[in-house]
Amino acid sequence: MALLSKKDANLILDPLADNNPITIQVLGICSALAITAELKASVVMAISVLFVLGVGNVVISLLRNVIPAKIRIIVQLVVVAALVIIVDQVLKAFAYELSKTLSVFVGLIITNCIIMGRFEAFALGNGPWKSFLDGIGNALGYGVILVIVGFFRELLGSGTLFGIKVLGDPVAKTGLYALGYENNGFMIIPPAALIVVGIIIWVQRSRNRALIEEA
Amino acid sequence: MEHLELFFKSIFIDNMVFSVFLGMCSYLAVSKKVSTAVGLGAAVIFVLGVTVPLNWLLDQYLLKDGALAWLGPEYADYDLGFLSFILFIATIATMVQLVEIVVEKFSPALYNSLGIFLPLIAVNCAILGGSLFMQTREIPNIGLAFNYGISSGIGWFLAILAIAAIREKIRYSNVPAPLRGLGITFIITGLMGIGFQSFGGMLTGDNEPPEGTETTTVKAENKEEKEIKKEIEDKEKAVSYNEVINK
Questions:
Q1: pTM beyond 0.95, yes or no
Q2: CB–CB of B128 and A27 under 8 A?
Q3: Which of B21, B129, B182 sits opposite A190 (nearest CB)?
Q4: CA–CA separation, A33 vs A28, rounded Å?
């Protein structure tokens, strides 16, 4: 990391694990859960949030001395909404099928608490470059969880990854299915996402005892 | 009849928390005590009831493809749909501010119990989600839009009430340390979600639930709302058991 000073690098690396927006800060859960039945949707969602949060943080940071404190929430919402409209239009133009799968959840990036949270906590008090790194870091932390959940749900639920049948064909009984393996339909239904995230939290906190909550 | 159907559908089948995960952030953050959960839940019902019909009007007369026809035939070709995010969120933010001011003026008691939650609500995804679902599901008239707002609010209220009650009790249980707090809340919500999945076949008969869960559905239907949350814990065991059997 010759490009970045150590402090700057931490802005990106911290949110990936020990200060992860989803498992530690408990922000942005909604969209994280609803669209993770497939890996592809998770990746697209992660990229969308990366764009919105990276650019949004810079914009808010540049405007931070101009925005009156009283109406800052509305200003922030307008900035995010504008960025999300861009994402939505791009998705509709280049990945129409996928934008149907994501349906309202692209729009819900606006109310994704990670975004408002980072604006409030970081971009309003720091310069554009740092805010950009912070935005990228947090979006990556969010993306990592999304991809992990998406990976397990698609692999165990449908036996595919990015729609490719990695475990063999369930109908023709090839690959693992020849041995009597069955897809776990449970992973496809929405509540499974919650349980997978719960397990990720469990694993993470067992590895790093400092994160355990007081009862 | 369609009102009744939409009402129960939004509360149980399309429950905001358990089937689409909206408003999870505040659901997790404000569910440590039943009393605060009730306050936030009531505020959500209220704000959804106000904003969904309002956004329905916006959608119908401004945003939809050809919605501007009332201005004259030359406007009929415009589709301002891409503006819906920004208009919906602006409506919600302003309404929340307005509601806060009005409630403070006319009912200080209500303000004291709801007031602190109102600013939180502007960025609650359940609120924006309510409006966006109203748009994608093409709810036909304003009465149904109002109904949809209120009933999905009630669904959310029910969910946060249930989890707050369970979390109050779970404090006395011996949960593995790394799961304490957030982790176990996620898993309980997941289990409750599985329970709510069994409401799937309650009304229309599509999404036929697997056999065996049907009995629990019928039973739960007859319960008072308050009793349901007590039932949930028992039911989730039964249902997840059934799930395993059926798969």
A1: no
A2: no
A3: B21
A4: 9
Amino acid at the residue A200: I
Residue A15's nearest CA partner among A4, A5, A28 is A28
Q: How far apart are CA B163 and CA B208, in angstroms?
A: 27
Which has more pLDDT, A46 or B201?
Answer: A46
User: Is residue A160 classed as helix, strand or coil in its secondary structure?
Assistant: strand
A35 to chain B: nearest residue by CA?
B20
Residue B210's pLDDT band (cuts 50, 70, 90):
very low
Chain A's closest residue to B241, CA to CA, is A186
Decide if pLDDT at A1 tops 50: no
Nearest CB to B89; choose among A77, A182, A214:
A77
- Secondary structure of residue A161 in the 3-state scheme: strand
Tokens at A44, concatenated? 């697209």
Q: What are the Cα distances from residue A198, in Å, to A88, A126, A137, A162?
A: 30, 33, 22, 24
**Is B178 within 8 Å of A202 when comparing Cβ atoms?**
yes
Q: What's the pLDDT at B154?
A: 92
- pLDDT for B127 equals 86
